[in-house]
Specification:
69% of the residues lie in helices and 0% in strands. The chain has 51 residues and is mainly alpha-helical. It starts with 9 loop residues before the first helix and ends in a 5-residue tail after the last helix.
Length: 51
């Protein structure tokens, strides 16, 4: 299978995926710090099924 001409070099993939993972972690942290998210997480904890 031939690669298309716009395929980035193999050496770029490690740097790109590492930076994407860091950005995902930062976005998740920012969402977790929102008060609405905290209150929703607390209310979900109260609705657990008890045996």
């Amino acid at each position: 299978m031939r690669k298309p001409f716009f395929t980035p070099p193999n050496s770029a993939f490690g740097r790109v995926w590492s930076s994407i993972h860091v950005l995902i972690a930062v976005a998740g942290w920012r969402v977790a710090m929102l008060e609405r998210f905290r209150s929703a997480a607390r209310s979900m904890g109260r609705t657990e099924i008890v045996e």
